[in-house]
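Exercise: predict the fold of this chain.
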Amino acid sequence: MLGYTDLGDLPENKRIEVIGNMVMTAPQISHDRPFVAGIALEDQAKADRYAEKLKKRFPQIRIIETVPGLVPGTVLLRVGKALQ
């Protein structure tokens, strides 16, 4: 799925499940560009928590980077499938 999905109304663990399933089942964009999901979060602590939960539940997920978000004070967590 390409685009934007607002998961804000779901409980956190359900959000983790939806994100992980999406990343793991999304088709690869091209032979050298795997699907990447960007998750906008309120702060670094939440980004760290999401990354930890994603890795625990979906061991094949790769944490690509955590960078400042577009809105001041927010964080963007980028995740994708492990490189093969």
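Check your answer against the key: Residues 28 and 47 are 24 Å apart (CA to CA).
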